[in-house]
Amino acid sequence: MKTKRLLPVFLGAAMVAFTACEEEITSTEIDENVQSVTEGTETSSVDSEENVEEEMELNSADFTVTIENVVTPKPIFESGVFAVPMGKSEPAPLFPGEAYEFEINAGPHVLPGDGGTRLSFVTMFVQSNDLFYAPNEEGIALYDENDLPICGDGPVDITDQIYLWDAGTEVNEKTGGPNQKPQQAPEAMDQGEEENGVVTRITDNSCSFGNVLPENNDVIKVTIELIAPARFKVRIKNVSDSNTIAVPAMGKDARAAVPISPGVYAVHTIPAPFFVEGEVASGAGLIGSTSGVEDVAEDGFLDDLLMDTKAATGLIVPLSPGVWAIHKDGDMPLYEKGMADFGEGLEGIAEDGSIAMLSESLMNKEELMQYGIFNTPVGASEAGPIGPGNSYQFSFTAEEGYNLSIASMFAQSNDWFYGFKPEGLPLFKDGEAMYGDMTGYVYLFDAGTEADEHPGAGLTQVIRQGNPNTGPEDPNYTVRIVNGDEFDNIPATSHVIKITIESE
């Protein structure tokens, strides 16, 4: 039977713990904050009559805007492979004295209350049929109970948290047997007898065949080092030698080293990414790979496990409360691309999800036809951010010639926000009111007010910082579209936010 542990999609109150620094702005105040602006100057009676006639000819419509969080929650925050030994240029197993190194990004948590970030990996114990090294199901905690990194004072040896496991996929032979990887052709796979067993931890230095196995620290050494805030270096070293394991199938007194295969790693907050002890290897864990763990444990092959792990990897992005404004076409009331933030409160939204200052600033913009805030999720009674599957909604009436501007924080960042182009979204086209999916007009902007950290890991990002407005200044202080190549985990805009408009 294939067993999968599914990611809980109910993020609940834990998601809204940062509450976007609302400063007591409630949904009731939305109506109070909405302003209608009547513009005009003293004119002759003829001019007045002409203006009235022109205004009567303008199209007008009622609009309802829905802002939805469409993120598909994934159970893995970051993942990858370790395959090329240090000093080499091609993937290969580790032999005595060699090491793999890889770097990971991880803050104390990805979302509030998620249990904290952890590291897991899978790599083959090559002198076997289907044994592999991995941490336990929970993984290795990267931070302590005080949210301090476990290796803040230098590299830490975590080998005592690495265990030897039997995948239960291939019948064990006498060490050195013909169906163990060292005796097979390099590209051969799945040649042994099917065991149809379950994943079990090796606890007595002996597999089910009765082979005498070495202590873990006689084969593998794993260290982790903090190399920058929220960034770690992991080193996996082969410390075996030519006498580490007996290989009786190769001769009475034959002994050998234990190669270690390339592997796959994952940074996660929910236990059991790759396998579940006592369950079959196929389809188990958060990743639920059909053959990936078996391929690594039997042959050191990574392709399937890497593919399935990448498919389960992604950033969960809450969206903050925000502001909206109706203004004439050509005006840029919230921001201007290539220019510094106006200093009117956009920084509060972009850095901390706080709408207080910007909503107050909009009160003083007489050129606005209307403005307001969205801060209470549909169906909720309290203000807060929205997680996957939740939405905000607001309504207004506008005339032809007016545009809509919005701003809402990408809450896994230092100062990024979603919005339309600075001139806003035209509400009429060819005399007809706009309606339908407007997501294609939405951009992810960098406010230029705080230096960027790795999305979802930065320690001065709103979900992980101790106080608002605490990050260092951005050396590039201009508002600009986020460079999607700067970080490798920025989801496509259409995978995070969906904005639709109904009009009548």
Automatic annotation (TrEMBL):
Location of region: Disordered: 33-53, 171-195
Signal peptide: 1-22
Keywords carried by this UniProt record: Signal
UniProt cross-references to InterPro entries, sorted A to Z: Spondin_N, Spondin_N_sf
Keyword Iron: no
Top-level taxon of origin: Bacteria
NCBIfam families hit by this protein: NF038123_dom (NF038123)
Identification of the protein by name: Spondin domain-containing protein
Organism field: Euzebyella marina
